[in-house]
Amino acid sequence: MEKIKLTYFNITRCGYYRFRDSALAFGGLSETLSDIKLWLNGKTLRQTKVFDPADGDSVFPVYISDLAIDAGTGDALLITWNETPTTAGGQVAAAAGDDPVGSVDVSLMDVPKGGIPGYPCFFLFIPSRSIVVTIRFDGQVHNGNPGLSRYIDDFLGKFSSHVVVVENDDGVRINGYVTVHGGEPQNVRPVYRSSQARVPGKLEWLIENRTQIRKLVRRDRLLAGVAPNYSRLQTIWNWFGITTPAVPHSGSVNFDFELDCSISEEQLDELVEFDALEHDKNKDIGFRMIGESGVIHWLSHALVKQEIDIDVKRTHAGLTSANDLLKVLSNHRASILSIVPVE
Fold first, then answer.
1. 237 — phi, psi (to 5°)?
2. What distance in Å separates the CA atoms of residue 207 and residue 269, rounded to the nearest whole number?
3. Which of 46, 76, 145, 283 gives a 20 to 30 Å CA spacing to 241?
């Protein structure tokens, strides 16, 4: 048996929308999942990449390693493979964790020819409730939702069956989106958006007591190999008065800090939205209130999440069959849905 941690996200947009209109024009979650499954047919893992990150982008390339859809419920289990950074020579760097700061030894390991270094992430889609549930096995830090969101958004924009492409001297360009093949392009845009589901009441209490907030608390985990994070780590060292910091080029650094402040309603909304995009096991935002000594109200405590035990076979790299995992989770479907807030 393995314990898995589930975190719930509401899917607020998925498909094609007319400009300045929140109503779905065509597409939808179930259709998008079926479209992705059809598009995956016959492809290699490398061919499933739909975007290349820009310089400084915190989301690295994402691939799909498996996808299964239940014909009865429409539920789907999608497994992504999330690429991790390599050196300029195409090697993976590993720092000796027990070496003293300033004398850290780094080993470089070759990636097999054609290999894609990375880790898997698992997602359960329940279209009937417009939710996606991230699944983290024991020891897994990232839920992968930012990469998933970017993936589906780019798939809708570039590769779905609704995309119309035309050839020109430079190759191909997108000429719009149609409801059916051969139809006229519509004045629509592809959109996929999700937000973390929150327990009713907890966030509302924080909003109602916003004027009692006296400190903002931030917990974070920075990956040293990402350019923006490396600059942030240098800035943190500079705060200590060290002008030539020994900032690691790989690995991660956990830290937290507190800031005396008062929060406006708009700022609180921004913090909640930011936390929903950033949140994982090592990232959180909390608040200390007037008259409450030693108590931190973490935004993560308002998230809809649960833990369950399942029996599923995984490889040494942590992968499993999407079909097998979907079947196992179908036995827990009632429990999984029981905590989803009804809107």
1. -60, -40
2. 9
3. 283
Query: How many Cα atoms are found within 13 Å in the side-chain-facing hemisphere of 112?
Result: 3
8 Å CB contact between 192 and 149: yes
Which of residues 113 and 306 earns the better pLDDT score? 306
DSSP 167-188: EETTEEEEEEE-SSTTSPPBSE
Long-range contacts of 260-266 (CB under 8 A, 24+ apart): 260/214, 260/215, 261/213, 261/214, 261/215, 261/216, 262/211, 262/213, 262/214, 263/210, 263/213, 263/216, 263/287, 264/210, 265/207, 265/210
The type of residue at 135 is: I
The two tokens of residue 131 are: 């939710």
Phi/psi of residue 290, each to 5°? -60, 130
Inter-residue contact 304 to 339 (CB < 8 Å)? yes
Question: What type of residue is 185?
Answer: P
Instruction: Look at the chain and count its residues.
Output: 343
**Closest Cα partner for 11 from 166, 259, 193?**
193
123-175 pLDDT tens trace: 999 999 999 999 999 877 778 898 999 999 999 999 999 999 887 767 678 88
Token pair recorded at residue 43:
């492809």
